[in-house]
Amino acid sequence: MEGSRKSGKKNITEKQEAKMLAEEGGKSASDSDLSDTDFTLVKFIDDPNILRIAVMASPEVTLGFLLAGVGYQKDRFRNYMMVESETQQEDVEQFFLTVYRRSNIGIVILDYDTVKRLRNVMQRCNQLLPVLVTVPNKSSLTTYLDKKERNRRLRQRDAY
């Protein structure tokens, strides 16, 4: 633990904190007179130089990335879409093109099934950014691994 503890504008050393606890009868630091009003709020400024990650995948994959902190929402735009089999093709294509054209998106993560649905649209996309990354989902994992293994064998055969 650090030698001093910062709480907003007040600096309290460990000795002072121990003395305060003894005077208060052993209350915890959260029960002391230090309140949340002592903290200053930092306003988040959206930096245009920061590239964000967008996710278009099955709900399981998308939720995993959201739990990892990839989610972003500002001005009625969010950088993720949970694509299910019932999702309209037009909605999927429209969201993909919206994300693809945004200047602050650097990576678009798509699951295997969504890539198959967007094959025709993706053929027209030839920009350097955003980078399109395909990840397998639980229903396509074996297909994805079989295809990867087949490509590896073909490369080995061509090497000889």
UniProtKB/TrEMBL annotation:
Record bears the keyword Transmembrane: yes
Taxonomic source organism: Drosophila yakuba (Fruit fly)
Protein family (similarity comment): Belongs to the V-ATPase F subunit family.
Coiled-coil features, chain-numbered ranges: none
PANTHER family, sorted: V-TYPE PROTON ATPASE SUBUNIT F, VACUOLAR ATP SYNTHASE SUBUNIT F
Name of the protein in its database record: V-type proton ATPase subunit F
Pfam name, any one: ATP-synt_F
GO cellular component, one term: membrane
Domain of life assignment: Eukaryota
GO molecular function per UniProt: proton-transporting ATPase activity, rotational mechanism
Residues spanning the membrane: 50-72
Record keywords, A-Z: Hydrogen ion transport, Ion transport, Membrane, Transmembrane, Transmembrane helix, Transport
Biased composition (Basic and acidic residues): 11-26
Keyword flag Nucleotide-binding: no
Gene3D superfamilies listed in its UniProt record: ATPase, V1 complex, subunit F (3.40.50.10580)
Stretches for region Disordered: 1-34
Gene name of this polypeptide: Dyak\GE16185
